[in-house]
Amino acid sequence: MTFAITVDGRSVPVVPGQTIGAALHAAGIRSWRATRFGARPRGLFCGIGVCFDCLISVNGRAPERACLVEAAPGDEVTTS
Amino acid sequence: MTDVVTDEARAGEGVTYDLVVVGGGPAGVAGALTAALAGLRVALVDSSARLGGQYFRHTAVPARAPGLDRFLRQARALSDRAEVLSRHQVWSVTREPDGDLLVHANSPEGGAVAVRGRRLLIATGAYDRPLPFPGWDLPGVLTAGGAQALLKGNGVVAGRRVVVSGTGPFLLPVATGLAAAGAKVLGVYEAGGGLGLARHPLLALGKAGEAAGYAVSLARHRVPYLTRHAVVEAHGEREVEAVTVARLGRRWNVLATRIVECDTVAVGYGFVPQIDLGVQLGCATRHDVDGSPILETDAAQRTTVPMVWAAGEPTGVGGWRLAEIEGRIAGRSIIAHRRAPGAGVEVAAGEVAGVLARRRDRWRAFGAALQQAYPVEPGWQGWLRDDTLVCRCEEVPLARIREAQELGATDARSIKLLARPGMGWCQGRICGYAVACLAGEPQQPPRRPIAQPVTLGALSDTDTPHDSAH
Ligand SMILES: Cc1cc2nc3c(=O)[nH]c(=O)nc-3n(C[C@H](O)[C@H](O)[C@H](O)COP(=O)(O)OP(=O)(O)OC[C@H]3O[C@@H](n4cnc5c(N)ncnc54)[C@H](O)[C@@H]3O)c2cc1C
Ligand code: FES
Q: What is the pTM of this model?
């Protein structure tokens, strides 16, 4: 009973109810953006919407916190 | 800020609620349900997809947790009797000329919503308190609560080979949870203590069953539990590949080190109460046992601002049982206030005297004792190097903070102005504790004009996270 989202075109399985951040982390994708100054890789840190490290763009929307956004079937996620 | 508020929708179509609750954890749900059962019109606003807060996290198929069945019944009863706005992030509360409170939130569709109420209950919980160390910003280093949220809320085990480090009793459920879910937990490194599990403060506090349960579970999974040890550096290129674990002295100075290979680190040094909304409204604060600013409340859970109550972690960290009891007391006090609005503290306090208040005071004493047993010692500052990021958002290394101090910055506020730590997206929630310690001053209540960035879209117009130029 999983569904799929795509991350930069690659298919990632999601258990219903999981956040985008959790699905990525579970699939071994642990960083999905680079910082502005040092271009350091970032992914999940606080896991509850406090740190803003996990920002990601879903279906072309403005950046959101991946640890808070629940994944929906067919979501297209782009990382930088 | 009015420009943001103009095209807000109104939740509840012209309704003024008797009570608006912010936060859907044990405190908020207990307070909201108590009031709703007495016939008050209640709205509860929470940022998560499901009620439960940080402790009663559950997936579609809930796992066993003490109290979870009961909480789910409470949550269902509440949904039948009150307006529950999930996935709504509150960013500010303002006061109308007639005294009503307007709770401003972002809706999941990206719009803005205002909920109007006569009374407010702040039940916004807490978040992990991390300490910086070299490499703490590598992917794979998570907060202890973050690892727990992945597991309990998403069914995702944070990693294969995991190191747990920090201080406080919370490390134990995190480590045993990960081990039971199949992770290889290479060690629990508790910076404090010095006594080991057999003399864990939980035992001294009469919680022998709980401590023994963790001890048995750690032993079964062969997880070493070492006190006066901590992760002081994380190594890796794109993500964490190993950590330096140090044996620590009494003040957490490094005595000896070794390398442990791992793919994941869960770190936590206690919790920071989330009090922004109260501070915005002008509620008085005080320092908790561990120095954290908390909202000052009376016996009836009232803050110093009329019509504003607080319950759970914003009034001091003490666990989910204490949070629920405080929520119930707040609910009762709010009911009493609606019946006799002019009666003052005495009536409201009288309502809650007795069993509930005594239980609250016992759990508070327990929470205070745990905070006392696990202080953060200053030696962690010696783990940092010049290039260690203190502020992750603005990428401010220790050297820039020291530079600001040499230029004359004497307190956290002026350090912030000169070196910009705490000026990024998280508004200092992650680095605020460390910056105050580095400045050598007590923790100050947060001065954030908004409790959450209004819309990231708006912010990112000038400042996008994908822009990695430079
Ligand atoms: C990440 C994390 C994991 C934890 N895991 C455990 C655990 O496994 N076991 C344990 O014993 N203790 C755990 N704790 C401790 C636990 O948080 C507390 O004991 C308990 O949850 C306190 O209850 P509460 O009602 O005060 O707050 P919480 O349960 O934290 O509930 C607060 C709620 O308010 C919401 N909220 C906050 N600000 C806003 C806002 N501006 N707008 C809208 N909603 C908002 C939050 O999303 C949350 O749902 C954890 C703490 C954290 C931070
Ligand atoms: S991981 Fe911290 S905000 Fe998402």
A: 0.92
